[in-house]
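Tutorial handout. Part one gives the primary structure; part two gives the three-dimensional structure as C-alpha cells.
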Amino acid sequence: MKTQLDFIQDHEAQRPNDLWLTQPMGGGQVKTYTFGTALDEARRVATYLQSLSLPPGSRIAIFSKNTAWWLMADLAIWLAGHVSVPIYPTLTAASIKQILEHSGASLVFVGKLDGFPAMEPGLPSNVIRVALPLAPAVPNATKWDELVGKHAPLQGRVARPADDLATILYTSGSTGEPKGVMHSFKTMASGFAFCDLAKMTPSDRLLSYLPLSHVAERAVLETTNFKVGYQVFFAEGLETFLQDLARARPTLFGTVPRLWLKFQAGIFTKMPELKLNRLLKIPIVNRLVKKKILKGLGLDQVRWCVTGSAPTPPELLRWYGQLGLKIGEVYGMTENWAISHVAEPGGDNAGTVGRAQVGVTCRIADTGEILVKSPGTMLGYYKNPELTAQTIDAEGFLHTGDRGQLDASGKLTITGRVKELFKTSKGKYVAPAPIESQLLSRGELEQACVSGANLAQPFALVVLAEHLRKKSLGGEDKVEMTRLLQLHLTQLNAKLDPHEQLEKLIVMREEWTVDNGLLTPTLKLKRSAIEARYAPQVNEWFSLKENIVWVN
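Part two.
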C-alpha cells in the first residue's frame, strides 16, 4: 500500500514548483515553500540524521508549535528511517522530561515556543538538540539552517514498509499520566478517509493551528495533506489569528468547541445577540449579515467544516447553521487515529457524532462503554503491553472509555466518560458531560464543569464568556445576568431527572486554561484539577440560599 511518505514524494517529483507551505515570520511577513524547496530541506536534515549513526527506528522528538518546519522535521525523521515523537508545546519541564525519557528519544527538534526558559530544564543533557527557525535561544543546539547549508540532500526515493512504526503520540493526560500511543504508517494512512469525506483536492486551503502534537491535526491535516497536496497556511499566534484566517481563506476548517464558543462570543461583542437574531429574520438583509460575519471570521470560503475533541452543544451547531456554516462533528481517539465516527456537515445529526466511518465497526458493551474496531487502531502503548491488552480485546475492539448509545440508524450519541460518572450521597450516578453540553447552549457561558460526588445534588462550576469577563458586571448588569442564569438553570433542571438536577451554578471569572493547569493541551477539562482547586469552597457555597453564586 502507498503511505503518506510515498504520496509526498510523488508531489516532490511531479509538482516541485507548486506552492505548499506559507509560514508567518512576524510583522506581516511570510515565507513560502514549494514541494521542491521543502523536501530539499527535509532531505538535507535527513542526511544529517543518518550521519549520527543512530539505530534504525530511533525515537526523535519534535517540540514546537505548528510551523512549516514541524512538517519538514517529521519528514526528515521518516526519510532517515526513524520514529517521530511529538511533544505538546505547552507542557511543563517535568512532563517534557517524562516523555523524552520514556520514549528514549535520541534527539529533539526545538521550535517556536512560549516560555521556553521554564521548559528547558526538561530537556535531558544527553539528548541532542536541533533548533528550528523561529525557536527561542536553545542552549547547546545546532540550528536547522546550519544543517541545511552543511549537508547534501538524501538521494533517491525512500520507501518505508507500511507496518513500520512511524510515530509515538503521547496522550494529553486528561485521565492520568501521558501514555505513548504507537502508530504505523499503515494505521496513520487510515486518515486518508478524510480525503474522501471532504472531497479534498490540491486546490484546497487549510490553516494549521491546532497542535500538530495532537491526533486531530496529524490525521485531518498532515496525513490528508501528504496524500492530496493542498496548500497549508500556519497561524502566527492568538493575537493575529483572525489575520491568519483572512490570509488563508481556508476551504477546509476544523476546530474544538471551545473556539467555536469564542468565535460566537466575539460576534456578540460586535453585534448583540437579540439584534443579530432580528436581522437574521429579515429577507435580503440576512444574507448580507451572514456574508459579513463569515467574511469577518475568514470563513466565507469554507466548504467543509468540522468540530471535535470534546462535546459540542447541538444548539451551537444550529446557531452556526443559521449563518450558513454547516459544521459536522468528528469523534475519534489518539488510539484509533481519529478514525471512528463522523456526523457530516449539513446532515440531521444534532446531538450525535454520526455513523461509523468506512471500515469501522462499533458496538456498545453491557456497561455502556463504546467499543470500536478501526483500521486506525494503534499498535499498542509503548512499553506497556499490559495496558495494551486491557484496552484492545481479543476481537480487536478498542475499549474507548466513553459511554454512548447507538440508535436504529447506527448514529452514535456520546453520553460521557465511563470514569467520569460520580455518585451522589443518595446513591445515584450522574454523567456530567451531557449536562455540561446543555449548560453551554447559552452564549453567556464559555466553560462548565458539573460535580457533586457524595453531595445530595450535583452543582456546576461555570465560566462566563470572554466579553462578559471583561466587564465589571456590577449593579443592574449583574442583576440581569443573575436573572438570565437562574432562568437557564430552571429550564435545564426541568429536562433532567431529579437526581441530576443542579443545586447551584457557581459563576466565576477565572478562565480555565492550559497555563493554570485546568485544561489539557487539547482544551479538555482536567476535572480532578478543577474539583481539587475549588473543593475548599464547596461547603461555603452550599450554605448560601442563592442558586446562582458569584465568585470574585
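Part three, for discussion. The two ends are 58 Å apart (CA to CA). Residues 475-495 form the longest helix (21 residues).
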